[in-house]
Structure to design on (914 residues):
């Protein structure tokens, strides 16, 4: 049996939902990051769990690799089908199956995007908080254990996925987790699938936590004399237990790009973007506290975004940070890093990284979900220029090594994919071998996103 | 090779820390619940990870069962060594290895109890929030995925264990998780061990989340005309997103026992015990909001416990709820149930359960961590009386079935152990088979707490 056999059977079963054109294969060969493209042999568009089950059955019987694909916004090469086979595009499974308003949860198909869900929820007074910036699919976000700007308050996909339906490599369909908010009933399979990057099963339905839209929201920016002052303010804020909803760091280079792209007019120095959620008085109190903290660390005062449209503009600009950077240095692409360290080591991590950037001579604006100890560089390079690529790899490597040395992780939220697989042994030690045993148990033929997460063969 | 071989080798290696006296074996044969006692062949007292590794090696080579034992406070028979072998008492591994104040985490050995940790933390301004009532060990709490009175605000052991060191059945020592607050680096092994009840490995070190002691704390009780009114008030409070720290339900029978035991003088009707954490104004605001909500549902007003000693007295009485019940009906033991449902179904679950109790003729006071949808009965029976035991089993079964029918779980926080194993298939369906495969992968000889969680042989 071979991939050709798989394609024949899939084509017969799925007709025009099994696409093998060059154009389509090319489209699914690459992601937003710098990884070398590899074409799938076909792209499949399931409409239901039963479709997924049938596809997995055919692929299992023929040994055909399956790489699940959500919105294509991941950054570590997760969706590059490095062993060929099929790309399984989940985007047509995009129904919001149920919103349980009283329980504050929603049951969705994996192709639902976070914006789609939040649009749908608008009238309910609830929202889905996890916000990685891009309009990612909920399935993809679960698969990569995504987080983003307001994880500091509402948690990551680890906390926000309550349950999931999964098609396993042998065609079994299982449900992991439940809608009850806690349970001690057995192994936490749901949390095992979250972050497994399509290597243990294909998620076909997810139950996610929702939260009440806050009564009061206020957003502000606060510039600082130094990077260290900004980071120390974050550390103290977190240590005080302030329930800040967003606390984002941007360096002067990032602001320069943002001002040009989003016409923000924010002074170009180390800056925090903040958002407070709560009651009117709670929000005011948080802002006052933060004002006191930042003043002790060279904070230059708040610029408030009081009207809703100003707030939206601020966070739209934050989300467009990378587009701003790309527009500023046309022809270059971002080589994105993703460090996360215990917050006590954050100032050290950022300052040393800044020094590395300076020495490298590369352009590398920095943003960070610093309330979680997480920050990113977008190292802007011409990927066709081997010297720049090599320099970026060296800088990225230094960031990853430092994360581990400081007790952190090489990937705070982007996942392992192709980009971080080389660090898994160093990060996990003997536990990485256990992960490989789990992979073998779930997918002995290695047909689910082979070549990612674990090197089996 | 046999258990006798294991005992000989363990005895040689551990001398007086391998105890085989009848008295000791008897002590480790039973737990606080109703499960039939079974004696271990020996009790071992490791002092270090290396001791645990050596014990596991000997047990693996001889096929000797190992049942880990923390503080002995679990309620589902987890620690009853149903296949004999050794009880591994972790209580001497009770060092607090490190408190990282800036990062708000602590690294502890598994035998550290939650009170010990909180005593140690007192001067730091931090606290460990998970509070199941009993002074359980952190290792045991992690193993059963414990929670308790303030999980509604601070999460359960699922959320509060950041990392752990584990000795596997084959003697490997691994570390799962990290001190960074989030990570997308690989399968979430840490969450897999949390709640695995000593069936996948022996936890020898845990890193747990800490929180800042709130600036302001206020506690109150609020009586209600009806059970339904109390529960509806809880539901609305949760749905409003109020960050209430504790919201506990007690029925009139429980209050009667509590008044007698703890001299509380609280009117004997459906009652909520509440605690608010925050700033002075935040706490006042939460209390005011809750006052408005409860007034709409037949709430009879707060009785405040304003002084710290009154607060402590209130929560001490809540923690002693079961002792109060035992004192009220001497000679009887509690057959404890543990239902957790989505909060929209909580009123239904509680009211139907009350009706079941009435029909059964049994004495069964009710308490609940109702903010999570979780409630317990202490069905008071003479365990030597087969009719009472049978009636309690029938009532407990009705509660479990109802939990599943309402989309909940048969165990919100007590775990599976012996008591809930019979519901695992119904709760998890095909996923239970996957749990068995994981168990086989981690412990192919079935030496780790055999007979619990999964029926392998």
């Amino acid at each position: 049996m071979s991939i050709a056999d798989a394609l024949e059977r899939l084509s017969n079963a799925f007709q025009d939902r099994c696409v093998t054109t060059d154009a389509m294969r090319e489209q699914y060969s690459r992601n937003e990051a710098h990884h070398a493209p590899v074409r799938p042999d076909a792209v499949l568009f399931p409409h239901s769990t039963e479709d997924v089950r049938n596809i997995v059955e055919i692929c299992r019987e023929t040994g055909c690799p399956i790489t699940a694909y959500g919105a294509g916004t991941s950054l570590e090469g997760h969706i590059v089908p490095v062993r060929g086979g099929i790309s399984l595009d989940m985007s047509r499974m995009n129904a919001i199956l149920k919103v349980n308003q009283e329980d504050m949860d929603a049951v969705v198909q994996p192709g639902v995007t976070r914006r789609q869900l939040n649009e749908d929820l608008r009238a309910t007074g609830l929202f889905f908080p996890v916000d990685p910036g891009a309009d990612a699919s909920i399935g993809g976000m679960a698969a990569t254990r995504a987080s983003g700007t307001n994880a500091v308050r509402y948690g990551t996909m680890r906390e926000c996925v309550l349950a999931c339906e999964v098609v396993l490599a042998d065609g079994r369909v299982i449900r992991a987790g439940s809608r009850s908010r806690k349970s001690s009933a057995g192994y936490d399979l749901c949390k095992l699938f979250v972050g497994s990057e399509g290597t243990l099963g294909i998620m076909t339905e997810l139950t996610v936590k929702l939260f009440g839209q806050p009564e009061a929201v206020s957003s502000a920016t606060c510039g600082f004399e130094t990077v260290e002052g900004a980071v120390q303010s974050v550390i103290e804020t977190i240590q005080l237990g302030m329930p800040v909803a967003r606390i984002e760091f941007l360096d002067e280079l990032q602001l320069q790009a943002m001002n040009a792209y989003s016409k923000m007019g924010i002074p170009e120095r180390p800056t925090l973007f903040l958002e407070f959620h709560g009651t009117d008085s709670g929000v005011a109190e948080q802002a006052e506290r933060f004002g006191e903290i930042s003043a002790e660390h060279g904070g230059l005062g708040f610029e408030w975004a009081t009207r809703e449209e100003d707030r939206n503009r601020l966070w739209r600009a934050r989300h467009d940070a990378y587009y701003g950077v790309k527009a500023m240095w046309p022809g270059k692409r971002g080589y994105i890093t993703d460090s996360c360290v215990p917050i006590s080591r954050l100032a050290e991590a950022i300052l040393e990284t800044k020094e590395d950037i300076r020495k490298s001579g590369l352009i590398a604006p920095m943003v960070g979900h610093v309330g979680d100890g997480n920050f990113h560089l977008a190292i802007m390079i011409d990927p066709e220029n081997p010297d720049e690529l090599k320099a970026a790899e060296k800088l990225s490597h230094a960031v990853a090594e430092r994360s581990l040395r400081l007790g952190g992780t090489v990937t705070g939220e982007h996942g392992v994919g192709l980009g971080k697989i080389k660090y898994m042994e160093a990060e996990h030690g003997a536990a990485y071998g256990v992960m490989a045993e789990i992979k073998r148990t779930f997918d002995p033929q290695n047909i689910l996103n082979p070549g990612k997460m674990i090197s089996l063969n």
